[in-house]
Structure formats: C-alpha cells, structure tokens
Amino acid sequence: METVIIDGVELHLTEPDNVPMTWVGQPELVTQVQAAWLVLGDEDFPLNPRLVGKPGVGKTTLAYHAGKSLNKPVYLFQATMDTRPEDLIVTPVISEGGKIKYMASSIVSAMIKGGVAIIDEGNRMSEKSWASLAPLLDSRRYVESVVAGIKIKAHPEFRLCTTMNDDASTFELPEYIHSRLQPQIFIDFPERDEELLILRKNLPFADDEILEYVVEFLQAAHDADERYSVRDGINIARYALKRVANSEHRALAKKDHEIILNYLREAASLILDEGATNYFNDLLDEMTDEQ
Questions:
Q1: Which residues of the chain have pLDDT under 70?
Q2: What gap in Å lies between CA 164 and CA 232, rounded to an integer?
Q3: Where are the alpha helices (DSSP H) in the chain?
Q4: What is the rounded CA–CA span in Å between residue 155 and residue 158?
Q5: What residues have CB less than 8 Å from 129, skipping those under 6 apart?
Q6: Is the dihedral of CA 233, 234, 235, 241 positive or negative?
Q7: Exposed, middle or buried by CB within 10 Å (0-12, 13-18, 19+), for 104?
Q8: Measured CA angle at 128 (ends 111, 84), to 5 deg
Q9: Tens-place pLDDT, residues 131-148
C-alpha cells in the first residue's frame, strides 16, 4: 500500500479501481464528460460533471470509461445514506501495536495521484457530507481532514464526477452543492440498436435470438414509461441462459422459442416483478399468432 507524508502525517492511499466497464454507444456523452474536465489555462479549473438518469442506464460506466480513456487512474466511491465526512476524506484505524493509521479515501487518493474520482449515487449522501467537499469542488481545490489535522490539496490533474439516480430514495441537495456539480449531463435509455450492442458486449456467449427478445422487451417497457433498464435486461438474459444450460432438454431448449420465452418470463418475474412478464407474454402471443 502506497503512503505519502502531508504536513508530517502519513496517509495510506487506496488503490485505483480496475473493473471491466466499457461504454457502448452515444460517444457524444463521453465527449461531454471529458470537455467538462478540460482546463484552458492557468486561471481555469475543471468542472465536476453530474451524470443524472434512471438506475441502470450506465452512468457509472460512462464516468469510468471517460476517465480511463484519458489514461488516468480511476477511483470509485460508493455513496450511501450514512456516509460521513471522514469517510470521504481520511479515516483513522487502529493498526498493530495500538497505533493510529490514517487511511485516505478513494477520493483523496485520486486527489493526490492526479486521478479521477467518481462519487457513485451522490444524492444518497447528506448535505453535511457534501459540505466537507465544497472547497474541493471550486477554485480552492482542497479538503481539510479534522481527524488528521491536515489540509490536502488536489493534484492539477485531479478530476471528479458524480452520478445521481433519478428516483425518490435520495436527498435534496442545496443549491451551493448543485452549483458546484456542473454541467448536468442527462443519460436516457439507449435507442434499440445501442441497447442491442450493449447486450452483445455484456453477453457475448448469448444467441442473437435471445438478445432480440430482451431488446423487444426493453423497448416496449421504455415506451410504456417503465423504469426497467438495460442492466435489468442483462440480468434477465443471463438467468434465462443459465436455465437453458441447466435444462435436461438443453439441446431442444436452445431451438425452442417457446421454452426460451418461458425462461425469460420466469427471469423477469424473479428479477423484476410480475408486471414485467406481461411483455414476454405479448411476445409469446405474437409468435403463436405468426405460427
């Protein structure tokens, strides 16, 4: 574990995240995030984009991909309702011999290393926690650790982005925080072709027929203003494929569209709700009518 000394205090840094996240489709969204991070001169400083959308549309993947595309180390921080200011900056822990060891958060580690910090689901975090980051989000570019008694300045290459779910189980953040988290980039459900590309990227072992069924389900759900996302579609397809593979008649199941649709209906009911099965019922009815 790497350590640094700041004002005589030793900080233990967090390792960056290396995860298999690749953004598929809508390249203009990557461009928008990276444009927000540009610095145009000595008097300029980067913006802190806020990615907003329904759960499962790929906000975290977009932020991660944008950071990795700039060849920067990327650090993920998962915000929760009980995230404390010290969780965001420096946490003291008891090490061997009873000594206090200061652990830098993933955000502070990114600040020191000149990486990208992604605060995931940021509006699940309280105003008190966000207030501790306020100096970092404007031209001051620093945080203060009350626990360690130090001020930590951000590396010039440090960049920050937060994702926020568009749902009810979140805090209303004050204007002075929202004004520091700009621009707001809205991510909507993908178009049909993009959704199919995402499914193929995440399920390269799946037959196109199953992926087509799942895309039809998702597109119909989007038209009906359901909150079902491509992440839900990936999980439904993955479970249905496992049911096919585990079937006593798997050779038949791979070719029998009715069996496949029944597995997809089962997956939809287990992963989402009974209402989701209606879309696969409609697909099954359409297939029966065609026959």
A1: 168-169, 248-255, 284-291
A2: 18
A3: 27-36, 59-69, 85-88, 106-113, 127-131, 175-178, 192-202, 208-223, 230-246, 250-253, 257-271, 274-290
A4: 5
A5: 79, 83, 84, 85, 87, 88
A6: positive
A7: buried
A8: 65
A9: 999 999 999 999 999 999
Comparing C-alpha atoms, which of 49, 148, 160 is closest to residue 114? 160
DSSP per residue, 175-207: HHHHTTS-SEEE--PPPHHHHHHHHHHH-TTS-
| pLDDT value, residue 96 | 77
Whole-number Å distance between alpha carbons of 188 and 166: 11
Report strand pairing: 9-12 vs 100-104: parallel
Rounded alpha-carbon distances, angstroms, from residue 137 to 48, 147, 235, 248: 7, 21, 36, 57
Assigned token pair, 290? 């065609």
| 85 φ/ψ angles, rounded to the nearest 5 degrees | -55, -40
Q: 61 with 21: CB under 8 angstroms?
A: yes
